[in-house]
Every structure is written in C-alpha cells, then in structure tokens.
Fold:
Amino acid sequence: MTKIVGIGGSLRTSSYSMMALKLASERVKALDVDVQVLDLRTMTLPFCDGGKDYSNFPDVSVLREVVTQADGLILATPEYHGSVSGVIKNALDLMGFTELSGKVTGLISVLGGQPNSNALNEMRLIMRWVHAWVIPEQIAIGQAWRAFDEDGQLIDEKLAERFDEFTQSLVTNTQRLNTK
Amino acid sequence: MTKIVGIGGSLRTSSYSMMALKLASERVKALDVDVQVLDLRTMTLPFCDGGKDYSNFPDVSVLREVVTQADGLILATPEYHGSVSGVIKNALDLMGFTELSGKVTGLISVLGGQPNSNALNEMRLIMRWVHAWVIPEQIAIGQAWRAFDEDGQLIDEKLAERFDEFTQSLVTNTQRLNTK
Amino acid sequence: MTKIVGIGGSLRTSSYSMMALKLASERVKALDVDVQVLDLRTMTLPFCDGGKDYSNFPDVSVLREVVTQADGLILATPEYHGSVSGVIKNALDLMGFTELSGKVTGLISVLGGQPNSNALNEMRLIMRWVHAWVIPEQIAIGQAWRAFDEDGQLIDEKLAERFDEFTQSLVTNTQRLNTK
Amino acid sequence: MTKIVGIGGSLRTSSYSMMALKLASERVKALDVDVQVLDLRTMTLPFCDGGKDYSNFPDVSVLREVVTQADGLILATPEYHGSVSGVIKNALDLMGFTELSGKVTGLISVLGGQPNSNALNEMRLIMRWVHAWVIPEQIAIGQAWRAFDEDGQLIDEKLAERFDEFTQSLVTNTQRLNTK
Structure:
C-alpha cells in the first residue's frame, strides 16, 4: 500500500503550516492511501552536527524510520526570510540519501505576506540534491492569518481546489514512479 | 570603528566552516577592523518557533546584540543537501530586520565534494530578503577534508588569495556602505 | 558625474517593463544623475553564439560601450516562465566582465500574475556571477496590465514610493561604491 | 511509442552542448525510443516579443509542433554568466503550457570552468513553472574543452556512466509518468 508521510517545518503552537499539512493529509487519506504526519512540535530533535550518531535522541530514529518507509512526502514549511525554516532544513539534515532518495515529494509553503515561491524553489532544489522527485504542483499560501476559517478549512475555494489537484497528483504520481 | 561579526553554521567538533571563518576573521583583523566570531557550538540556541520571546535562552540576546552592533557579517556554512545548514538558517530565523538589515555580508560555504554555489546562492537570497547587502566576492571550499594543513592554513595558494580579496572587499565596502 | 544605464528586457510594443524602466529613469534623473535607457526594441542585436566577434552588428558595440561607461545599471525584465526573458539574458550574454563587473545594479520585474521574486532572484545571481553589485531594494510589479494609468504613472501609491526608495538607494549606493 | 526531443541552447559551431546532447540522444535511441534533436543553429527563430503570432517564422511552428508531440525532453545549455543561455531561454519563451506542460525533462549544462549547478537549478525552476517534470538525475559537464575525445566521446568513464543513468532514468520515467 502506498504510504505518504507529511513533515511540517513550524514549531508555532497555532501553526498554519501544520494546518495546511493536516488538510493535505486528509485529502491524501481520502484517496485510500496510508498517511502519517510527523509533528516536529512533539518530537525532540537535536541540531544536526554533521555526524551520524544521535543515539541519545530516539526521535531521530523515529524520523528516519518513518521516512524510510514512505513512498511519498509532503513538506510544509513556513517561509522565514524568503526561504525554508531552519527547523525543517535541520530535520532534512538529520537524514540523507538512505531516507530521502527516490521519494516523490509535494511542497507547501505558508507565509504572512504575499504568496511567493522562494521557500518552494529552495525545497525543490534541496530535494533534487538528495535525488528525490518533486511534483510540479506546489502550494504557496500567502497571508496565512486569513486563509483558514475557525474549523481550519480554507476560505478561498480556488485554493481548496489547488489542494485537491496537489494531493491527487502526489498520490497518482507516487504510485506511477514507485513500481517496487 | 568598523565591526565585523562572523557566524559559523556548523556544530561539528572539527568544523571546516569554523576553520574557514577563523582564517577570514584573522585577515579582517589584520586590516585594523574589530572582529568577533560567534561559535554556535558554545552557544545554547533554541529552534525558532516563529515567536519573539526567547527569554529562557540568554544566548539569543547575545546573538541579537552582537549582530546588531556589527557593520558587516561573515556567514560560513557547510553545504548540506545542496543548501545552507539548518543550524545557520535557524540562527538567522532567530533574528530579523532589526539585526540584519543593511549589514554588509560576505559568504563562505564548505563542502566535501566539488565546490558548488548552491548554499552561497541561497544565503545571498536570504540576506537580500532581510535587506542586507552581499558582496560579489564569495568563497566555496570544495573537498574541505584536504583543503587545510595541520596548522589550519589553506594548502591551495590561489584559494588563500581569494580569502585576501574576499576580506579586503568586505572591509572596504562595509566602510563605503556604512556612512553613519 | 555618476551615470546610470537602464536596459529593458521586453520587445513588446506596449511593454510594461519599458514603462517601469522609464519611471525609474525619470526618478534617477531627478536626482541629478546622468541616465540613458537602451531600448532593445530599437536595436538590432544577434543571438549570442558564444564568440566575441559581432562586427556585423554595430548595436553590439553600442550596447557594450554604453554599459562600460555606466557606474550603475537598472535591469527591467518581464517574468517569462518564472525567470528572466531570453531577450535580456541574451543581451547580458553579449557582454562580460569587462562591461558588467563592479556595476551597481537595481532590478525590476514585471508580470501578469501575482508578484513574484523568481526573475529577480535569477537576475541577482547572474549579476553576482559577473561580479556586479545588486542593491537589496528590488521591485516586482504584479498584474502589470492594471498597474499603470493612461499617462504611464503608477496607480498604487505604495508602489510609487517603492520606486522612490529604489532609485534613491541605487543612486546613493552607486556613488558610495564607485569611488574612482 | 515514446518520443524524446532534445534542444540545445548553443549556437557555437563546435558546440559542446550539442555534442553532449548528441551523446544523450544516441543513448536514448539505443533504448528503442524515438528521438529527435532540434539544432537551433539550423533554425531561424525570432526573439520572443511576448506575443503569439510568429507566422513569418515557420521554424516557430516547427519548434512548437515537435515539442508538442514529445513525451520527454532533453534540454542542454551552455552555462553563460551562471545561468542558462539567452538562446535556450528565448526558445522556451516562444512556447508555453500547451507545448511544455507535463513533459518529462532531463537537464544538461556545459561550462568551461568547474562544474556547477547554477544553470541546471534555473532550468529546473523554469520547467516547473510550465508544469513540466524534471528528473532528479542531471549532468553538469565542467571544463568542456577537455571532456570529449576526437570522436566526440566522453573521456571520463564516470561521466559516461552518468549519461547512461541519466538517459535510462529519463526513458523509464517518461514512460511511467505518461500513461496516455
């Protein structure tokens, strides 16, 4: 069975990235695909020191094992300073080719101002570097503070449709590209 | 007096980024400029949670105050996955326009394979986003494991010359652009 | 006397890039600086073939000489396919370090959809490559078809203010960095 | 039958980009796939003026029709000024979503100095923008003047192996992703 894992790059209590990731993962689940979301707010990850041994941090093993088992990934990051958050980059730094190579990835960025492609562009190049696939469909949510209603649903219908297309493409193409 | 602050983006014990940063800062000092290097290995910084309050982490205040007082910056990062380290991006995420805007910045990246511009490009766009200046001269040290001799000096003379040009440009142009 | 040269990357008859470039150059002129705009629609430039000899195309010499004499540059491009136009990239390809190195550059992009930084990011990296300076201030005009009034003036006052800041920074910092 | 179309971004008589493209297309052909190479040196393309009508240039129709019929693309560009050539960007500007969307693309760059990812990164973002796929495998040929022997074959065996992997991935994944 196809498995998609979502990772959110924000540690904010009311994180819009995590809200967006939740919406995407619900849509993926509705397509009869196994979904697991890793919430970095509830995990204890160290800063990457360039080494391999993080045996004092069991959540590093959890991260690595869950991602290794995935066929596809959703990476959702807040855009900080026109790029990915240090939090999500550090989580990626704790992994390598073993975990990430060949994964089919969909990208979401969330920011307070006008939507922009900066963080998405950077994540695309990072994931290419570890030989992952990145689907052409991507989502940038601008002015995130007014994008969601009280129930965590998207207010803009067109944006909601983009989520449908995004998740449909992610699932379909993960299955096409992973022909184990 | 002109003040340059260096930040290294690696937590490795024998970090080549820190070795490169040390060489650059010595050259800056030789030009009669005040230099201070922030070694993130000896500081306790939290992951950025998108908020402003880090009163439990006095090193966040140290980072912010030292950078605020600087006229120029040197950012030295290992290239992880074709981009900046999560460690240095997180340190930048803990600051904002107040600390970084208008600073004149020189960029160094260090990697194990062939030299590349990926991390340098990304740092350039990040620093632009916070309205800092970035000098055209930049340094990518490839195959870092054989770039330094036992005394931490550069083996390749041409690379050593690039350090001279890099630091000379950084100092001269920091002074030209900061006409307080 | 400081000299700024503007180059527009569009060949459209009613080019918004050229309208934006005209506005910027008028503001530069108002700061008592010599300004010249190169309109690629009225020049006959060949495609760059990687060589140096374009003696059959006198406008290549015009381009090179005018840019060589400049202290600063304004590059205004339409964003095509999330990047600079082939037209402006080709004009830059016809020049090299001799013409471009050390120039202080301000960047403008114009597009039909939501404003984006893609073309600006790419121009920043291109100009860095030829060792030019790029000022932190930059302008992306989105939905260009409704950005200008009948007299070619900007409708959005905030955007007009950004033009003021942009040109002021370009002139001031061109003078600071060019201390011939 | 799967069809791959190659486009070279150089107009040089002895273009290394075209040599690299030829090698890649021969490998693709050996995998029983239909291959066609568009040599821009023998086509008469105008500069893109942002419009749609190029009826005076029949080669624009040729370009568009050949690419429309393709399932996959190989784009080979010289790296000029740390980015794609204006020549290849202009050829892409003459097309749009109709021709390019959904195509599975492999990227090659060729440069005189050390290999770099700059032009490859930019092509990846451009092709994403028009909703094409780009395979993770990519090739940067540095010091191109000494990469080929007298018969136009690659001297470095490891590089030749990368061509094998690159073309194998392009063909396999074009077939996986295009399930017409």
